[in-house]
Amino acid sequence: MRNVPNQKGYFGDFGGKFTPETLSTALNELEAYYKKALRDVSFRKRLHYFLREFAGRPSPLYFAERLSNYLGLKVYLKREDLLHTGAHKINNTLGQALLTLLMKKRRVIAETGAGQHGVATAVAAARFGLECEIFMGEEDMERQSLNVFRMRLLGAKVSRVSAGSKTLKDATNEAMRNWVTNVRTTHYIIGSVVGPHPFPMIVRDFQSVIGREARRQIMKHEGRLPDYLVACVGGGSNAMGLFYPFYKDKNVKFIGVEAAGLGLASGKHAASLCRGSVGVLHGSKSYLLQDNDGQIKIAHSISAGLDYPGVGPEHSFYKQTGRAEYTAVTDKEAVNALKLLCRLEGIIPALESAHAVAYLIKSAKKMKKGSLVVLCLSGRGDKDMKMISELKVI
Amino acid sequence: MNRIEQKSSWLKKNRKKACIAYITAGFPNLKTTKTAVKILEENGVDIIELGMPFSDPIADGPTIQYASGVALKNGMNMHVFFDLVGELRKTTQIPLVIMSYYNPIFKFGVKRFALEAAKSGLDGVIVPDLPPEEAVELNDQLRARGISEIFLVSPVTAAERVKKIVSAASGFVYYVSLTGVTGARNVVPSGVIGQVQAIKRLTTLPVYVGFGVSTAGQAKSIVKTADGIIVGSAIIKLIERYHSSRLFAKKLGAYINSLSRVMPY
After folding, report:
1. Are A314 and A42 in contact (CB under 8 A)?
2. B179 touches chain A (CB under 8 A)
3. Are B18 and B227 in contact, with CB atoms under 8 Å apart?
4. Region A315-337: what's the mean pLDDT?
5. d(CA A200, CA A273)
6. Domain assignments of chain B as residue spans, ordered by start
7. 3-state secondary structure B248-263
8. Which residue blocks in A183-298 are alpha helix, DSSP H?
9. DSSP state of A195
């Protein structure tokens, strides 16, 4: 049985519903429909069908033999990169699109950083005949131009956000403003385990398919639970999706890897859990990057998907209770890890996921030799090729 | 009775509708804010909302987003804000209400915020991203010091929830005229008149209507049922255009008068 969040949407001290009054009703409605959907066998069957036949689940749990030999560990990769659209985001957008139909709304909106959530939302909207508008920061539209094209090809409207950071934070602000305005007709498909309750719970539940499969698969391959789960954390949806089904397995250590950008000491990073403090942003109380006056700082990461000054409240809860350990790797370490995985395994990871790989490279020596690791390879790197090619890594 | 409540009962006794003005504190500079408060009061504004800017104002449209950005760049923060209120209090007794977001208040410390608010002479607090469920701590601290916490009611708030909100509120009820963000618009959304009437059946607090209100025509129709109007973005635009001009007082005054003229007793 779930023990978090509580009725008010809190994971310990974190979470809640800090939104304009106009959204209160929509959030209560969403929660009611979601509870109804959970009890509804046909909803669950339908979601399962689309996850299997449309998205390509279950994703393999692949034994990365050469990476394992290189690191002296036993590393399995949860291959979310092999899903339709190339990242784990589709697990959530299919679920929320079906919820949208249940609520009889005809329009969906979403924020996107790297464009993966935007593409996954556009795909779900196209499949279910929903009108779709995606908010994306100007800077991200530059660095992820291929994904912008994909969204438009899928019939979504992509709206440029030129305010503030010109990245994910301000795209989220703009999506919220649009939702406040069109709340009667529109559902906001939040892309991570962030935002006001019930979003962190709903997105976690839809993403938990990652951990449920991984648990079954590792038991089949190894006959035991892993020693470590490793995943990158921006808002934290792939990490929470992997971690949550192992919550009660106290011997399984959770490692969340944030973006250290140009280095934690430089101040130019996106490590809300490692270097942030508690505050309220985008509807929930959690760790975030802010100054002494409570103004939100602009995050930095080479990876657009991690370039966010906040993090999901359940991660803050895991940090506070010590259930998970959070650490960070730099842009440079992530790029090197991306290259290493290409060469050792023939897999091109997304820059986001490369952060998790970089952690393993950095920390393998400190881990017991032969430790069993499941790493969430949350997305594939095609979208990042333009930027990587400009870095002259080869 | 704080200044808001005194003002409300005075308005009621004199059968007057209220004109409430919002300005972003420190936009484009502190001096202008002080001048604007003086002009607004002299032209019959009843209550002034001072915006304490936040970097991510999700309830605000482009005008107030822009003003907030400028004010923050010029160094506005909670300390400067309370100093400003303290200074204004030396020369005016007009009810002053802070409008901010929760994070700057949370970071400042909820109790400390309430103490400083009382000390500086603030009368009310509006936090658009803090619904009553999340406002218990702040509300307790404010209530203990006689400061009103003003909550918003929106067009999609059902009657049951309106009851809950007005039971937590004091000072006045802020009715948001539309589903959307702040910013000047030209029409009165259909249903406002009736919805305000419905709210008034559930509370004895005055109901003031804001978000999207800027013209005399809107004001005239809204006060058929509402107790007053709240104007923000239109004033910010005037401040931006005329703050360094000789015409500032004249232009701002004329605008306020254009609104009060059409609001009968």
Report:
1. no
2. yes
3. yes
4. 98
5. 16
6. 3-258
7. HHHHHHHHHHHHHHCC
8. 199-207, 209-222, 237-243, 272-275
9. S
Question: Which chain B positions have a beta carbon within 8 Å of A161's beta carbon?
Answer: none
> Considering only CB atoms, which chain B residues are within 8 Å of A10?
none
What confidence tens digit (pLDDT) does each residue in A250-262 have? 999 999 999 999 9
CA angle A128–A197–B113, rounded 5-degree value: 140
ipTM confidence score = 0.96
Q: Which residue has the higher pLDDT, B25 or A143?
A: B25
Q: What is the pLDDT of residue A1?
A: 39
Q: At what angle do helices B30-42 and B233-242 cross, to 10 degrees?
A: 120
B251 is written with which tokens? 């232009």
- Which of A4 and B48 is assigned the larger pLDDT? B48
Residues A62 and A128 sit within 8 Å (Cβ to Cβ): no
Per residue in B162-206, pLDDT tens?
999 999 999 999 999 999 999 989 888 889 999 999 999 999 999
> What pLDDT, on the 0 to 100 scale, is given for residue A2?
56
- Please report how the helices B30-42 and B248-261 are oriented relative to each other, as an axis angle in degrees rounded to 10: 40
For the cut 90, the answer to whether the pLDDT of residue A4 exceeds it is no
How far does A123 lie from chain B, in Å, by closest CA? Answer: 27
CB contact under 8 A, B72 and A295: yes
- Preferred mutation among A8, A10, A14, A21 to probe B, highest tally of B CBs within 10 A: A21
Tokens standing for residue A336: 């090197």
Q: Is A242:A269 a contact under the CB 8 Å cutoff? A: no
Name the fold adopted by B3-258: TIM Barrel (3.20.20)
Neighbouring CB atoms inside 10 A of B245's CB total 10
Structure tokens at B73: 């760049």
B84 shares contact with chain A (CB less than 8 Å) = no
CA-CA distances (angstroms) from residue A96 to A128, A205, A279, B31?
Answer: 11, 11, 27, 49
Single out the residue of B95, B115, B91, B120 nearest to residue B105, CA to CA. Answer: B115
Q: Which two tokens stand for residue A252?
A: 């399984």
Looking from the CA of B69 toward its CB, the CA atoms found within 13 Å total 11
Report the C-alpha gap between A130 and A146 in whole angstroms.
22
